[in-house]
Amino acid sequence: MSEKNVDKVRAEQLQRGQMGQRYLASGEMVSMRLWENEQPGEPKPEVARDYETVGYVLEGRAELHLEGAVVQLAIGDSWTVPRGATHTYRILEPFTAIEATSPPAGEHRRDTP
């Protein structure tokens, strides 16, 4: 396999989305994004997205409010938000996480506030 078949995104090339996320590599069926040093505060309004999300906590703590349930997230935890599920996050400590979305969140304005 040659390097021309690899979609590599360098740190200095990362684009930032409207909600503060940084877009990492993206394919046809899945994309990754980085939430870096998100600060504590009140949860944003609940949303339901047309993509599935899986995430992994690198630093900090947060609460995932998902369809009426509250899930505590800490370093090393991973989670899933099903497509169409109503949810929001409340950051409890400065929070860094990586998420993968399918289909890609950044396409067709799926990833707007």
What helical percentage do the residues reach?
A: under 10%
Question: Could you name the CATH class?
Answer: Mainly Beta
Query: Which residue ranges are poorly predicted, with pLDDT under 50 across at least 5 consecutive positions?
Result: none
- What is the terminal-to-terminal distance? 39 Å
The tally of helices reads 0
Radius of gyration: 14 Å
What number of domains?
Answer: 1
Give me the CATH superfamily. Answer: Jelly Rolls
Can you characterise this structure?
With 113 residues, this protein is an all-beta fold. The protein has one domain (15-109): Jelly Rolls (Sandwich), CATH 2.60.120. Helices cover 0% and strands 52% of the residues. The protein contains no helices and eight strands. Strand 5 and strand 6 (69-74) form a beta hairpin.
In short:
The protein is mainly β. It contains no helices and eight strands.
Give the topology, please:
Blueprint: E1 15-16, E2 22-26, E3 31-38, E4 47-48, E5 52-66, E6 69-74, E7 78-81, E8 86-102
Antiparallel strand pairs: 1-2, 2-3, 3-8, 4-8, 5-6, 5-7, 5-8
